[in-house]
């Protein structure tokens, strides 16, 4: 696979100055409904920052306020040193925006999509011709330059949307659910491109409800639910703080999970070797949180319990979300 360098951005120009984004008590109401409920966060220049939460948590609404396309109800917001509400055009000129749904021009070729988008920013044609080549190379789409958009795969369309958003050399890239709907291979190709952008100093802000995406891409993230921030930290830090190192997933194949959980708590409750913490009861399985899940499983077997299936795995951000909200990220 070719390894094109990340295209030029203005990212490192003033990296010692203010945060890339700062939100204080940011609130958005639609009538009586509060979609974003007084959230406060700060994104450092050059970092990859995530908003992780389920559908309807308020992630896209927050992104729209950052992107200066939705007005806030109250609170303060600063993007690249500017208030998006006061200086919308200047803020938009410094951002690259990748919306949840690709909004490419299906009538145009791949290359024309980039050039036309650049024209909206008033960029000169000569510059855009060279820039389009650079961006197509970066997006691994040079061989598709003359193809029509409708002939591209989902992953290619997503990469073109990202390439197009880079045409104005943005210092901050906003990505709303960047890989939702893509197959695993296409996701990995896209993640690789985003890593390169981050390495080149671009600030990445992304929303996702995929824990693996957040773990792969984010230096730091906030977990959001019902418009509020539940926790903040690095993926590893959040897992350390809110979960055990390992998890034992058990399926007993009967409708007595709550009762079984109580029984297991008694078996494991005083077991220092297993490092038992707690149990989450899901409709189809029990999640046993323990530092040493294999040891916990041995104790369960020794007590005469025979689960139909058992799986030992590392804790993930999904476990963090479950611990914080009592619900799964994917509903
Ligand atoms: N224009 C609007 N008018 C009324 N309610 C809205 C509007 N836009 C969003 N909402 C509501 O605000 C809440 C947050 O929506 P938002 O799109 O920000 O969530 P999200 O976390 O991005 O989830 P998703 O991934 O599904 O977009 C949802 O309950 C949504 O229905």
Automatic annotation (TrEMBL):
- Cited Gene3D superfamilies: P-loop containing nucleotide triphosphate hydrolases (3.40.50.300)
In the bilayer, the protein is annotated as: Peripheral membrane protein
The UniProt keyword set, sorted, is: Antibiotic resistance, ATP-binding, Nucleotide-binding, Transport
State the InterPro entries in the record.
Answer: AAA+_ATPase, ABC_transporter-like_ATP-bd, ABC_transporter-like_CS, ABC_transporter_ATP-binding, P-loop_NTPase
Query: Localized where?
Result: Cell membrane
Q: Reply yes or no: does the keyword Cell wall biogenesis/degradation apply.
A: no
Q: Which residues form the ABC transporter domain?
A: 21-251
Establish whether keyword ATP-binding is in the entry.
Answer: yes
Give one GO term, molecular function aspect. ATP binding
Q: State the family named in the UniProt similarity comment for this chain.
A: Belongs to the ABC transporter superfamily.
Q: Which named protein is this?
A: ABC transporter ATP-binding protein
Species in which this protein is naturally found: Nesterenkonia massiliensis
């Amino acid at each position: 696979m070719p390894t094109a360098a990340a295209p030029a951005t203005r990212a490192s120009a003033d990296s010692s100055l203010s945060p890339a984004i700062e939100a204080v008590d940011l609130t958005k109401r639609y009538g009586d409904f509060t979609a974003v409920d007084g959230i406060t966060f700060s994104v450092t220049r050059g970092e990859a920052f995530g908003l992780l939460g389920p559908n309807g948590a308020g992630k896209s609404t927050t992104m729209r306020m950052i992107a200066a396309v939705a007005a806030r109800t109250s609170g303060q917001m600063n993007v690249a040193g500017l208030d998006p509400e006061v200086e919308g055009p200047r803020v938009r000129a410094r951002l690259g925006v990748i919306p949840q749904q690709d909004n490419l021009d299906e009538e145009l070729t791949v290359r024309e999509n980039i050039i036309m988008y650049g024209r909206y920013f008033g960029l000169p044609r000569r510059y855009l011709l060279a820039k389009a080549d650079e961006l197509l190379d970066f997006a691994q789409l040079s061989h598709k330059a003359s193809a029509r958009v409708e002939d591209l795969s989902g992953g290619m369309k997503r990469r073109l949307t990202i390439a197009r958003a880079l045409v104005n050399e943005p210092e901050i890239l906003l990505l709303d659910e960047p890989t939702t709907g893509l197959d695993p291979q296409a996701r990995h190709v896209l993640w690789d491109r985003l890593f390169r952008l981050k390495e080149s100093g671009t600030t990445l802000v992304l929303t996702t409800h995929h824990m693996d995406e957040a773990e792969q891409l984010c230096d730091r993230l906030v977990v959001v639910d019902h418009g509020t921030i539940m926790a903040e930290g690095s993926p590893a830090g959040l897992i350390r703080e809110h979960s055990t190192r390992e998890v034992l997933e058990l399926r007993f194949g009967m409708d007595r999970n709550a009762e079984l959980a109580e029984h297991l708590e008694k078996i494991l409750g005083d077991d220092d070797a297993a490092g038992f913490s707690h149990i989450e009861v899901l409709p189809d399985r029990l999640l046993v949180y323990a530092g040493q899940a294999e040891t916990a499983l041995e104790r369960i077997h020794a007590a005469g319990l025979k689960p139909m299936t058992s799986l030992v795995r590392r804790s993930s951000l999904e476990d963090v979300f479950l611990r914080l909200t009592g619900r799964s990220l994917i509903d």
